[in-house]
Write a structure and sequence with these properties.
By secondary structure, the chain is α/β, with parallel strands linked by helices. It has 2 domains: 130 residues, no CATH class; 206 residues, Alpha-Beta Complex (Spore Coat Polysaccharide Biosynthesis Protein SpsA, Chain A), CATH 3.90.550.10. Helices cover 53% and strands 13% of the residues. The chain has an 8-stranded mixed sheet with strand order 3-2-1-4-7-6-8-5, sandwiched between helices. Helix 2 links the parallel strand 1 and strand 2. The protein is globular, with a radius of gyration of 20 Å.
């Protein structure tokens, strides 16, 4: 199996070792700026499409920030809604902008930010319509902004992790992807990235880099735009945003397929240009390449195949597995729940195979993938 050396390294071993390095780096300290006396005006922006089931509770929660009431407001973008999202958001105390036009989260955010920066807001914090926000979130954002941050990512997690093994698996996954990884990146001086929920942008950032991201993973796309402008995203785990995760298989598949297909589209469009930019000396292009690593399920499958190879390949695969295990144990220890690890381990092989099949089947059924709303349970 000598032909397998390069794919094993690129898809399996190197990404796995990178995860281990991030777990080690995350132990080296977290950046906590001093408390700021100046309080910036921050708009909490909630893009929503037919979210009448959850929008009232979200708005009520967002309004309970430990932050001067006159220095923030909750805005809901009712994007092409055909239900009572707008009326319920207003009743809960939000400012509402009803939008009609080309649907999509990226399109809605760009249209709204264009309007918002004409007013005197200093920053925006984007929160999904199914979320709850830590009461100190705005204070944390303000401290980072006052210390010079142009973009900030808050830790995001799962509101309903104890429903079943699937939600526990998602909590474990987000503890890695949306907490331990950006924390490790921050320690290494790498841009933390944007993961779609709980990211804060300074006014000058939006003026320099308009939110012209329109793909189904517009958060990754916009992060690449920030890197091109040499803007680094900081990370804080002092405050969190948590969202409801789908509990049924069909809804979970819809969400996962959307995420993975969107990542694949971004990889096809940006990998080679980023590689050329990095080779040409653009330092932040490397940060962008790290956004385009293969999903962990594919990394694990590559390592499993590596176990069937030569002794050297088996050794490398074993090192890769140990690195991944260490990474996820650290993620669960700091940001998840270690007691759920046995249940997750039992279901992990099925989860990896089922998720991989769902993504592959979606490629067979549809060559082009558009945004699909995840149905609420």
């Amino acid at each position: 199996m000598n032909w397998f050396w390069l794919p094993l390294l690129v898809i399996g071993v190197l990404p796995a070792i990178y995860l281990g390095v991030l777990a080690l780096a995350a132990k080296c300290g977290r950046h906590r700026p001093p408390a700021a006396t100046r309080k910036r005006r921050i708009a909490i922006v909630v893009p929503a499409y037919n979210e009448q089931q959850l929008i009232s509770g979200t708005v009520e929660n967002l309004r309970k920030q430990n932050y001067p009431a006159e220095r923030f407001a909750v805005w809901v973008i009712a994007d092409n809604c055909t239900d009572d999202t707008a009326a319920l958001a207003r009743a809960a105390g939000a400012e509402v902008w009803e939008r009609q036009g080309e649907p999509g989260k990226g399109q809605a955010l760009h249209a709204f930010f264009t309007r918002l920066i004409q007013q005197d807001w200093d920053a925006v914090l984007v929160v999904d319509a199914d979320s709850r926000l830590h009461p100190q979130a705005l204070a944390v954002c303000n401290d980072h902004l006052e210390s010079g941050a142009l973009a900030l990512l808050l830790r995001s997690g799962v509101l309903n992790p104890d429903v079943n093994w699937r939600t526990r698996m998602l909590e474990w996954s987000l503890a890695s992807f949306n907490a331990l990884r950006p924390c490790g990146k921050m320690s290494l001086g790498i841009s933390a990235g944007i993961t779609g929920n709980g990211f804060c942008l300074a006014r000058q950032t939006l003026e320099r880099v308009p939110y012209l991201a329109s793909s189904i993973v517009e958060d990754i796309e916009y992060h690449l735009m920030l890197l091109e402008a040499d803007i680094k995203v900081e990370f804080s785990d002092q405050a969190w945003v948590k969202s409801h995760m789908p509990t049924g298989q069909q809804a979970a598949n819809t969400q996962r397929v959307r995420w993975e297909r969107g990542r694949w589209q971004i990889i096809k469009a940006h990998f080679i240009p980023l590689l050329r930019a990095w080779a040409g000396g653009q330092r932040r292009a490397f940060d962008g390449l790290l956004d385009l690593l293969p999903p962990v399920s594919l990394v694990v499958l590559a390592l499993c195949i590596g176990l069937l190879g030569t002794p050297a390949q088996r050794l490398l695969s074993g090192i890769g597995f140990l690195s991944i295990v260490y990474h996820y144990i650290e993620a669960a220890r700091h940001y998840g729940n270690l007691s759920s690890v046995p249940s997750i381990a039992i279901h992990l092989p099925y989860y990896i195979l089922q998720k991989t099949w769902a993504v592959l089947a979606s490629f067979i059924r549809r060559r082009q993938m558009s945004w699909q709303r995840t149905e609420r349970d």
